[in-house]
Amino acid sequence: MDEDAETFAARLTRRAHTYGILTCVLLVASSVAGDAGGELFGWLWPLLIVGGLTTLFLAIYLRFDAALFHFIASHDDETAGCRAADKLLERMRLRKCPQTTRPLQARIAGTNRLLMRLHLAFAVFLAVFASATAYSLWTT
After folding, report:
1. Distant-in-sequence, close-in-space partners of 93: CB < 8 Å, separation ≥ 6
2. Which range in 1-5, 21-25, 126-130 is most confidently predicted, on average pLDDT?
3. Could you please report the per-residue DSSP string of 6-53?
4. Whole-number Å distance between alpha carbons of 68 and 90
5. Cα gap 15→54, rounded to integer Å
6. pLDDT number for residue 68
7. Residue 19: which residues within 8 A CB-CB, separation 6 or more?
8. What pTM was estimated for this model as a whole?
9. What is the CB-side half-sphere exposure of residue 108 using CA atoms within 13 A?
């Protein structure tokens, strides 16, 4: 299934916002549950914070990619949009402009790999959150 840049950008935006908001809510909830936690919760708390920050970083990175896909979609031609995105990234000093322009489907495949990393990071964060919350409820 070939997606156009605008549809893909909208999907990325929804995912980034969903995971970002859920992570923030769970971090706040973990601090409330942490008041009742014991010694093991003290060990799980740094893991929980690192997992939450990693998930938030990947969600922000995904949102940045969504903005790039919106930028690509704003051009008349897909190739011209990809070339303009490469030039934009070079002006921002984030990446050197390549000799050949990567096609849109290659960019989508790369961003899908980032999306899978976000899913994995959120799953790990959720598992640590669940175990920390269960422990804090168990000890009360």
Report:
1. none
2. 21-25
3. HHHHHHHHHHHHHHHHHHHHHHHHHHHHHTT--HHHHHHHHHHHHHHH
4. 13
5. 15
6. 95
7. 55, 58, 59, 62, 118, 122
8. 0.87
9. 18
